[in-house]
Amino acid sequence: MKIILANGSPKVGDSASRIFLAYLKDYFTDQSRQQPEAVLRDEERKILEAEFHAAHIPEGTMEELKSADALIFACPLYVDGLPGHLLSCLMQMESLLRNPQWQNPGLRIYGIVNCGFYEGIQAQYALELLRNWCARTGLAWCGGIGIGGGGGISMMPAVEGGHGPRAPVEKALAEMTDTVLQQKIQENKYVSVAFPRFLYKLAAQAGWRQSIRANGGKVRDLGKRPEE
Amino acid sequence: MKLIITDLENFNIAVEGEYKLINPHGEVHPCIGCFGCWVRTPGKCVIRDGYEGTGIEMGKCSELIFISKCCYGGLSPFIKTVQDRAISYIHPDFVLRKGEMHHKRRYQNIISLSAYFYGENITEQEKETARNILEANADNYDGTVKTVCFYQTAEELEDIRL
């Protein structure tokens, strides 16, 4: 089974999308964490990464997609939808996928959209855009995850044993791993970090204050209204 | 003032009253997720490519009008990229609105949103997504939705009056 993990964050370095795809990669390669019926032998599994950081399809991706079984997009929510650069890549892919040379009817598409807002449900329309893209390209939409509180995930400690603030997200990602390996479809799932919303809000706002000071500004500058 | 953001390079649509047009005039650089528009140059995007001031223009408008090719139920990449680059319209702090977390207002203007989508064979699912996204945008901007409509071609839009 060949799985392509597509990082749709514009950030080349650290990002929540990279963290979530790293989880998936760990789950795909750690047989002890998978449901028995989903376990594959090492030689049957190939996990590739594609970096969709700019407004063009990463080199070699289309060639790999021809023989892939699953393509999993992970990206941040940008103004209730997909980031513009990723949308541009999807349109280029749609155009190429009209050519029989690039078609792969067995390819299954999954999506992970994370948002800085607390409620994962706010990612639902971005997942709908991916579903609608699949309908246009003739690919199989197999479901996704909307993750709330993604903006704070890198600062939250990883706790073993299904505990800690990341636990609901890890659980949803683990379930998606099984769904992918069993070549199944899942309903979209919406999760939030296990961290009280009011504290998440306070922590985020403290972070903005710290950032503007670190950039030489004052806290009141956060509310500036430039004229031009 | 009406703020019109479109992917049409040749804009031939009648507009009543004062308006500002943002359409393709050179390459638009995608948002890089740096949040510089909130913490380095508050209110303005840090990428200087001619599209950095959209958030400021949004702060001056009463109507925001998208005229876009319908892409899977959303805006086209050009317009979406311009929109992504304009999150400086809102303040980084959070508020709860309709039971959900959204951003606080930076400006006091109430924006009325409209979208005129064009494209062949726009599906019912895409139309539903488009309407939902515009409603969600209105919630995020703390504004309202005026109209969402669909046309087969961009040429058909030349008969409308904004």
Provide a descriptive summary of the structure in words.
The complex is a heterodimer of chains A (228) and B (162). By secondary structure, chain A is an alpha/beta fold. Chain A is 35% helix and 18% strand. Chain A is built from six helices and six strands. Chain A has helices spanning 16-29, 61-65, 84-97, 124-137, 167-181, 197-214, and strands at 2-7, 46-51, 70-76, 108-115, 140-148, 189-192. In chain A, α1 crosses α5 (167-181). Chain A is globular and about 55 Å long. Chain B is of the alpha/beta class and 162 residues long. Chain B has a single domain (2-159), classed as 3-Layer(aba) Sandwich (Rossmann fold). Chain B is 23% helix and 28% strand. Chain B has four helices and seven strands, in the order ββααβαβββαβ. In chain B, the strands form two sheets. A five-stranded parallel beta sheet of chain B has the order 2-1-3-6-7. Chain B has a two-stranded antiparallel ribbon with strand order 4-5. The radius of gyration of chain B is 15 Å and the shape is globular. The chains are: A alpha/beta (228), B alpha/beta (162). At the A-B interface, α3, α4 and α6 of A face α3, β4, β5 and α4 of B.
